[in-house]
Amino acid sequence: MPISSRAEISEAFPSVQQEVARLAASAEMRSAFAWLRAQEAQFAHWQLEMARVAAPPFAEAARAAWLTQKFRELGLDDVHNDDEGNVFGTHPGFAKSYVSLSAHMDTVFPTGTPLNIRQQGSRLYGPGVSDNGAGLTAMLAIVALLRSVRIRHALPFVFIGNVGEEGEGDLRGMRHIFATPRWRDSIIASLVLDGAGSDTIVAEALGSRRFEVIVRGPGGHSWSDFGTPNPILVLARAIHSFTQTPVPTSPKTTFNVGVIRGGTSVNSIPESASMRVDIRSTSMAEMERLEAALRIALDRAIDDESRVTEARAVSQRRPFGLSYEVVVIGNRPAGELDPNARLLQVIRAVDTQLGNAAQIQRASTDANIPLSLGREAIAIGGGGSGGGAHTLQEWFDCNGRELGLKRILLTMLALAGVSA
Ligand SMILES: [Zn+2]
Q: How far away, in angstroms, is 334 Cα from ligand 1 center?
């Protein structure tokens, strides 16, 4: 998607731009902005407190309880958790369709990771403090604002702390929400908060499919059973032919063999060997084509290895029992936002209004799920700045949080419609 200049955007969507300008100049927004500015110490406090509640993959319950409690304290309606562990709270409007604001609760850090969460000046340090401490804190800031400053919006809001965004969580939280009729049929625009910053708009969902491929054979002694088919050699053949598959630069499509395992000892013909393969693209069709290529490469490799060993077998022993299995270990659907989507017009008009330069990006986030269903969704940051994501040295700087919060607030209200 080409990144247009601000002037071009204003010309392309004059009505949305005017609407956002009118909204930003309203008395409610001026008091909202002043309130957000005054609350920074509270926001940083929440962020530190939350980051101290561990939320390893598949073990987000303690943090979910913390967030549920905050949603209640801050006066959201219908605060509840679903079967998957997602946390919900709503803020009323006058219509039935929702604008959602969500942030994932899980971190990449396993149980037992030392969480040395601390503050030095405007900087917060520690695992998960930015990803997704920044997103969760921004969501809480908007919730708190709606209680303190009276703003009437037409569409209701649903606020969601979801599980399972990172790694093998495989977007399970978002997947569950969009498989639930109540939400699937009512959320018309999804704003996903992930990490720090105000300079990106993830409007293209990078899909991925990940596989564990296991090849099995009879195994044997390297000398006396020579001629028995070898699973490691099958993998080697399969890797060689799979990686010859051409991939387009647009839509960008990639593959990787990231892990390879197998065998017992140098003088054993292995009984099994395995590899982990990662396929990524913004196009579902490209991912499907590559998956098919992987299976064809495996079929051929089995045939070739069987043929070669059959010819080589000196004993009467028939080469038997070569098989493979492909286990899906990750599946994130691809998709992209229509360039004419209202959500895109709104966020760009908001960025123009705030003098914020943001770029459209392609990434794998919770927005993949609604985008893959043809829904309007983007992922943006919670403001401020951050770094060292997924490391113990992770940090977040509160400077610039205000810009991120204004951006989120204006976007939500422009999407929902504000009644005077
Ligand atoms: Zn994240």
A: 17
